[in-house]
Amino acid sequence: MIYLMCPMRWGSIKKQRKELTTEEKQAKVAELKRRIDEKKAQRAAQAKKDDVAREIARRNMGKDMASAREEYDAIQTRLVREKQAREKAEAKRERERLLKQIELDKAERRARKLAATTSLDAPERVSTTDVAAPSPGKPAATPEMQMQTSIDRLSQYRVGNDGLTALKTLLVYVTNVLDKPTELDKYGKINSANPAFKKRVGSFIGGLSFLRAIGFEKDLDGDLFVLHEPNEPRLRDAKLRLQKAIDAFPQ
């Protein structure tokens, strides 16, 4: 059986479509309106949720910032207190240092006054005797002990860096002998009456006793200190001790 398909006009199809009644149209309009209202309600609810979430985040951020600020303030307060404590401790140490320096300066002035009223080597003979001839029962002082005692006494002359000048001058004497041991006629003799020597070394307690400790001997007929037989190990030890005292001298 053969069916013949004939083209149909759009107009005829349109005519065949059932037209909606007024009630059906109103129902469709109402349905569309309901869907629109439902979408609006959903968007409004979502917007409200978003607003609540943003408000919670803002409050949490505010709390975090407040907490961070409190922590920052606490750290700053602690740092300020630590700085104040350090400054207070440093001020205390400085006061103690100044008081100690004042006492040393007083002792230095007393020593200078004593040296000015006695002969050049009188204080040294007393000092050397005290070290070299101890009371019975005590061991004799070694040259190393005499050197260190002399250096310690010279290091107490702080005013005008007189002690530092004396130590540096003695270091030059020792270095010259070590570097030029064959020229003892020049570097192995020291004139204690020389004004420059008196100013730099001879007028301070510890200067002449140091020379004796490293081997210099005073000429009984004059003012010369002479080194007859250099002891190289002792001289090198003396050089190290002098350099250490110079490095440690307060500037």
Automatic annotation (TrEMBL):
Region Disordered, as annotated, extends over 114-144
Does this entry carry the keyword Lyase?
A: no
Is the Coiled coil keyword given for this protein? yes
Write the protein's name. Answer: PUB domain-containing protein
Q: Which SMART domains match?
A: PUG
Q: Which residues form a coiled coil?
A: 13-108
User: Per its UniProt record, what Pfam families does this chain match?
Assistant: PUB
Task: Tell me the superkingdom of the source.
Answer: Eukaryota
Sorted alphabetically, which InterPro entries does this protein's record hold?
PUB-like_dom_sf (IPR036339), PUB_domain (IPR018997)
Q: Which UniProt keywords apply?
A: Coiled coil
Source organism per UniProt: Aphanomyces astaci
